[in-house]
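Here is one such protein, fold included:

. . .
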Amino acid sequence: MTLCRRFLLLTVLLILPFAGAAQTSLQQANSILFDQIGKVHKLSPAEMRRLQEIFAKSGFMGQGNPAISRHPMTPQQCAARIPGGPSSYNNARNTRICGDRYMAPLYDPRTEAPREAKACIDMFEFPNIPCTYPVVWTKAKEAAEVCAAVGKRLCDAHEWEGACAGALEPPDYFFGLGSVSAMRGAHNRKYEPAKNWAYGPNFQRGICAQNSEKSASCGGGGYNSCGSNTYPTGAFPNCRSALGVYDQHGNAAEHMNLPMAPEQMASRGSTSLGVTEMKGSWFIWDKYRAHPDWCRWRAPYWHGSRVMSTGSHENYHLGFRCCKSID
């Protein structure tokens, strides 16, 4: 055996135990997470099995690589920051309307009452439990599958935007323009004069979960080099929209569905979804603002694909939240 081959074999033998330990640690963390999800959202055994299948198939989905993630706040510290504690986020009226805890009705307060809402959105990033770390390393396809597994669906872009801006407005995708770029441009020009953030008309530091840092080893965005250094969801009570939705700025960026035609709208019952749209900002925004993040802003076609493509994008600060159509 040559010296080079001996060195390669030794390297593999040294790496394998650590890789196995990291995988076991992720499995252990996800086991705790599944227990939380099942108890809080009262999922059936079949729903839990499907959820676990999706995570297992991914091999990366979870609250970040446990070996290198360095969260700036613990769940216990989060709970101490919330007046009334995490359970105070649960709204009995909204639970009746939406059929699940920690969801907010989507409607236009100028013309509608909450009970008139036709859809609801998760108040927090998935797993939609206050004072838990958001799930990341999720492809858009997996996000859609997870939402379906728990009886919900991926949000259309205008629903996420309305939840953030404080009023659900009619869809305005400019379908006739035909391309993501042209549709995006027309939309952004329409809303930029009245742009706002969930908490008000001007961007502010210190309001949302935006003061963490990337791992020092994080270069190209790999699972083994980039920690998902997020905050617990709901840890910043003032990072809240008028409709009662949290963390739409900071923490994890979020997958949404951007329909390219009316028949691709999840809000109209379609499962043949459009293309990927990544909403919101992420956990370093107080230090470094890479792009705009006002509520109705639509991003360039970053890492673009069809939502249901097996190659849709995933990374250490990209998660999702779900919506739900209601009668």
In short: The CA atoms of residues 70 and 248 lie 21 Å apart.
